[in-house]
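Deliverable D5.2: sample structural annotation.
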Amino acid sequence: MQFEKSLLALALTTVLTACGGGGGGDTPPTPPTPEYQAYACDSTLYEKANQLRIYQVMSESFVDGNANADYNMAYGNSEHKGDIQGVIDSLDYIESLGMNAIWMTPIFQSVELSSQDEWADRLDGTGYFASNYFDVDPKFGTKAELQTLVNEAHARGIYVILDGVFGHFKTNATDYPSPTGLTVSTNGPGQSATGRQAVYPNDLAFFKEVASYWITEFGIDGWRLDQAYQVPVGAWGESRKTVEDAAKSVTYTMKGETVNPLGYMVGEIWSSAGEIANNGYGNTAMPGLCSNFDFPMRYSITQTLAVEESGAGGRDATNLAAGYATHIVYPDFAAPNGFLTNHDLVRFGDLLQRGNIAEPGTTEYSQRHKAAYALLAAYTGPITMYYGDEIGDEVAGFADRVDCANDNGANARAGLCDDHVSRSPAKIEGIAAVIGDTPFSADAEQKSLRDYITEVMNLRATQPALYNGVRTHLNTDQDAVVYIDHKQAGNDAVLFVLNTSNSDKTVTFTAAQSGSEGDLVDLQTAEVIKSVSDEYSVTLAPLQARFLDIVTPSAEGPNVGDGDNLVGTGPLADCNAADEDEVGPLGKEMWIRGTYTPDGFDATPDSHKFSYKGDNIYQVVVNESVPTAFSFKFAAGDWSSEFAVANSAPVVIASEQNMTIASGPGTESAITIPVAGDYVYSFRINANNDGGELMVSKCN
């Protein structure tokens, strides 16, 4: 059971592979043996990339702007008539939302095979198994339309990012050489009925040419990279250098200014932070991609403000801090991309309904969307919004997870599978999703949400502390319900405060904690909050977020103390307890099972195997050689016993916490190891074998 299984992905491996763009359903490749040239990340480029507010569109389902460019068949519940012209028609709307970039799912040509079936036809519509990487699929439009899109977007200050699938392709891709005569390999493993994986380093030169061609010929600004783990880290480094060099060789006019294409690249690795680090970022000696989508944080957000796809949720505000804590495993150059929804995930609105939390049209439904996007507005790094989220879009009648594995394709044909249900028709103000249909007009609640998201996106654009700031988390006595971050970039400092509960909350903190020597000013309402006896008091409505400008930042910054001692006390903190010659009251062997290894939750290594110490206590000492973060359970090899912190809360190192049964996906706990060393993992089982206490403590 890997991390993805708790996120539903691996439970639908076949469907994800068939639908393309999944990322979560395949085993990462064996690390490569070839040598690659190392290229450092360009800090200037990625500081600029941190300003990105990307609007993602699913090309085949978005908007029908050209009646002669239709697929009419794909995965999802749209009419499958989306095209490039539809994106052009929507540019004014996208700009009005405060977004400054577009990511389009693949638009390269997929050529039909004589023997392919309906499912291959549907896969062609997604674009994720291309045949000809150097032409636009006529069912999406033409190269001329793409150039118009790029030019019109740039004129509005909007970057254009294409979807690059450099790890797999359609089997007939070898029939379509590059302009210089390069072709793809023919001996890679099969993927889907009509696809094949690329072989590296053999295919590196071909995909370098793909990566540079669309920049030099059309002026695109970068690439979103599908299933990025299929490409070796070193090859990503070389491709990134090719993209950056190509961008430096081209100029275009953006809002009257002559600029180079951005040259941004972001990877999709639908997995744990450790696997994203290993298979995406690499390290300072061999950097790969400098930016990858922040899947772990996405799940922390949905677990806290809605539910994840498995239905797991109800986490308190500390879960957000735990999500951010996973960044500890990333190298210093990493620029994670924050997001909430994409074309492979269930829409946030449907997750609210799946969790029986809120229904469309209700105030709480809108509030929870606002809270989630306020959190993203305060995220350091690039961010991405999936089309429709700005109005709280959902798929009517779809909430419960649909099993698409055993229904002979009926739900897949209807577009009612978790991994592609969000590929629905766009709802763009004043525009019909399909030519001839009635143009969309938002209702009052949708307009309210859209206006709010536009407001916080524009606020983010003007506040470097939000998109580029160093983040420091503040702890208060309201930690379970109120989340607070101090963000600072240069002299620009902001407090982000979020109430995750359904009731009014007032939170207090000291001036020293907040790093402030003067007033706080609400950046949305202009309310001035003064300190009283060196303490601030901030009131929040249910699910409200506030952005508070620190008018006079202190030279010392926020004072959050040195952190709790990592060494606990009592028998659960004993690193030297002797083993007993028995298996203990559970009558079975137990392991720490989690995302700490590439094998994920499936692994039961001896290094993480518990010994019984007597008095109902099980312990194992683990050498954590580097700072790390992962999710875990204490579980038997056959999953007949599974335990985690009560309510799946994060581990607080050196603290004894209640432990309960954690059965099923999405019930694991998160832990952050801030410094390397030996740590003892302990649990004491109760008399009923259904709970007890646990602790993780650093050994002296």
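Annotation notes: The chain has three domains: 3-462, 469-550, 571-698. The chain is about 25% helix and 20% strand.
The annotation will be released with the project's public dataset once the embargo ends.
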